[in-house]
């Protein structure tokens, strides 16, 4: 039995799911969405193309960089599990398929048929998990969910809606968990997930793009964390999209020396991993990992 345990997004990482790297083109993503009858996903891809400098990753280079991430995880004694291959092009980004809160694994509820199909890649693992719960309404994806010791922060944007947040509140209560769910609201459309604009670097420190959040949400973050402001250029490069190996050690995309220095000044050891090919499409280190156990 796989005992789920995630009390914080920066607890020591012990067990994680990653997904296979596949070759795809931007045209292929649009065609995949059209084949699924997925107008919403097609519109989202079009909006992302307008907002970001997006290119399809070279699959050979992306696979090598992904392998480096897996190697770093294993070097830090993390058990790495692989999602089963399914008929979906962007399956590498496992984070969105679910999320663990305390001792429960919650199944995501994606809005698009393409992303729902990705979830079948985890079916072989569900039966081995200690507790699994589904949500009964709305839409929510794992990249919008961030677990702190006392709260669950949930981004409401292009992938998660108010109904999904309310469904998560009910599911948390039904599971007997004592967690406050706090919505994080954005200032503009085109925000795919919370983890593109805010992640935790330690229990006390967060990386944030302030311009992305409305005043109430930003004040909430300011009142709880010491925030390192990330520049618009760093946001576009997915620099916020980090993975904590523990409370004082953070996997960060290589090449962001300013952020590495800011982390080091706060007693956090940056662990740079070259991921620039993967992030040509808007998905980074955090997107590519789905934690099951943190201590």
Written account of the structure:
This protein has a single domain, classed as L-arginine/glycine Amidinotransferase, Chain A, CATH 3.75.10. 29% of the residues lie in helices and 22% in strands. It contains nine helices and 15 strands. Helix 1 packs antiparallel against helix 2 (39-51). The chain is globular and about 50 Å long. The protein starts with 12 loop residues before the first strand and ends with a strand. Keywords: Hydrolase.
Proportion of β residues? 15-25%
Question: CATH superfamily, please?
Answer: L-arginine/glycine Amidinotransferase, Chain A
* Residues in helix, %: 25-40%
Given as residue ranges, the uncertain stretches (5+ residues, pLDDT < 50) are none
CATH topology: L-arginine/glycine Amidinotransferase, Chain A
Name the helix and strand elements from N-terminus to C-terminus, one letter apiece: EHHHEEEHHEEEHEEEHEHEEHEE
Mean pLDDT rating: 92
- The CATH architecture assignment turns out to be 5-stranded Propeller
Number of helices: 9
Strand order in the largest sheet: 2-1-15
> Number of DSSP strands?
15
Question: What top-tier CATH class fits best?
Answer: Alpha Beta
Structural class: alpha/beta
End-to-end separation in angstroms reads 17 Å
What's the number of structural domains? 1
